[in-house]
Specification:
This protein is 18% helix and 38% strand. It is α+β, with helices and mostly antiparallel strands. It has a six-stranded antiparallel β-barrel with strand order 1-8-11-10-9-12.
């Protein structure tokens, strides 16, 4: 066969939706009245920055009460520890005072923890996507205060058919994926496969694939925006390097088991083994990204029985190549 450029079917385009790499709904673990809510929607915050604060007065009172009870229980237990060896207190009374002391200690720890819970801090650096309450409002424990998103890196979610999800496997040659933005789709960003579902959607029979990309610096991309995801199944689509699809049977291993193809010298009708660099497989074809040129005539059958410099002839019409005694044939 004569090597020719592959068809444009190696490029697929899917609609994608942008999502944050990390996102969380922040809420207090205790209830109370909001005293401070300094952040605004769209504001960038850093890890550990205060997002909101409850009025701590009630929790401070509880903490002081628990502290007093703890000090009393500790004093009683310390005296019991001194009196027990002298026989002035029974073991049962000692155990009771010890239990009271440990209970008071746990109650004080709980009060201090609840007091800390009145301050809500950012668990990671990100952007406030949404504020769901207003300042001075009474809020309940676990009620969402703000939604925080980490947009330092982004996710792109697409749904692809069964024929394409097979290419996502780590043990296969994965396609090149690019996200396109802008009115003229002229802003391209490389994507990497983060994860993919192995269960098809019951309605669409497609598989959800999650891709990752770095957040652009030249313009703003926010979660919820849409993009076009271009899947290049040919390695040469983005590099500009010519790539060709040839029959899988045309490629064989040389003496070092490196891939090579028999190329026919048109002037002498002899064979020359040409090392090639292969890419992705497409059904019964394989992509060659280096070693061949458009117009090269290659042998596609019986390649294991041919040798360097062997003479071949072209078969007529659609006949397959046949050896001619010491000679071979090419199509």
């Amino acid at each position: 066969m004569v090597v020719s450029s592959p068809e444009t079917a190696s490029v697929r385009v899917f609609p994608g939706v942008i999502d944050a790499n990390q996102k969380v709904e922040l809420a207090f673990r205790v209830s109370g009245k909001l005293k401070s809510l300094p952040v605004r929607e769209g504001e960038v915050v850093t890890e550990g920055q205060v997002i909101a604060q409850l009025d701590p007065a009630d929790y401070q009172i509880v903490e002081r009460d628990r502290k007093a009870r703890y000090q009393e229980a500790k004093a009683n237990f310390d005296r019991a520890a001194q009196l027990l060896p002298q026989g002035y207190i029974s073991k049962a009374d000692y155990d009771r005072l010890e239990a009271t002391f440990k209970s008071a200690d746990a109650a004080l720890s709980e009060a201090r923890q609840n007091l800390e819970y009145t301050t809500l801090k950012a668990p990671f650096s990100g952007r406030v996507a949404k504020r769901l309450v207003e300042n001075f409002q009474e809020v309940q424990a676990k009620q969402t205060i703000v939604e925080l998103q980490d947009t330092s890196s982004l996710e792109v979610k697409i749904d692809i058919p069964e024929s394409d999800v097979k290419r996502m496997r780590e043990d296969s040659v994965r396609p090149v994926l690019v996200a396109r933005f802008g009115p003229s789709q002229d802003q391209n960003f490389a994507l990497k496969v983060k994860e993919y579902s192995t269960v098809a959607d019951t309605k669409t029979q497609t598989f959800r694939v999650t891709l990752s990309m770095d957040s652009p610096t030249s313009f703003t991309v926010l979660p919820g925006m849409t993009t076009s995801v271009v899947m290049h199944t040919s390695l040469g689509d983005l590099t500009g390097i010519a790539s060709y699809l040839i029959p899988l049977d045309a490629v064989h291993g040389d003496i070092k088991l490196d891939p090579q193809v028999w190329v026919v010298d048109a002037s002498t009708m002899t064979l020359k083994g040409v090392p090639v660099k292969v890419g992705a497989m497409h059904d019964n074809s394989i992509e060659v990204v280096e070693g061949l040129q458009e117009g090269d005539r290659i042998v596609t059958a019986g390649v294991a029985f041919l040798t360097e410099g062997q003479k071949v002839r072209l078969m007529k019409e659609i006949e397959q190549a046949e050896p001619m005694g010491s000679e071979g044939a090419a199509n």
